[in-house]
């Protein structure tokens, strides 16, 4: 997953956020669907 390049602080927050999402994905049954959603969010 590519990380958007705003401010370094924002990037740090984004990394923490994606880590949280990954942990939720491991629990979530519909992993593939969630990964697609996260990829779409990453494009924003």
Please characterize this protein's 3D structure.
With 44 residues, this protein is mainly alpha-helical. The protein has one domain. It has helices at 8-27, 31-43. The longest helix is centred in the middle third of the chain and has 20 residues, at 8-27.
Short précis:
The chain is an all-alpha fold. The protein has helices at 8-27, 31-43. It has one domain.
Alpha carbon gyration radius: 11 Å
What letter string, H or E per element, gives the SSE order?
Answer: HH
> What is the count of helical runs?
2
What is the end-to-end distance? 12 Å
Number of domains: 1
Q: Helical amount among residues, as a percent range?
A: over 70%
Query: Could you tell me the mean pLDDT?
Result: 70
Ranges where pLDDT stays below 50 over 5 or more residues in a row are none
Major sheet details: none
How many strands? 0
Strand fraction: under 5%
Structural class: mainly alpha
**Which term fits the overall shape?**
flat
List the helices and strands and how they pair.
Blueprint: H1 8-27, H2 31-43
Helix pairs in contact: 1-2
Summary keywords:
single chain; 44 residues; mainly alpha; 2 helices
């Amino acid at each position: 997953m590519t990380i958007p390049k705003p401010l370094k602080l924002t990037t740090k927050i984004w990394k923490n956020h994606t880590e949280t999402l990954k942990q939720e994905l491991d629990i979530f049954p519909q992993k593939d669907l969630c990964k697609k959603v996260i990829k779409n969010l990453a494009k924003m």
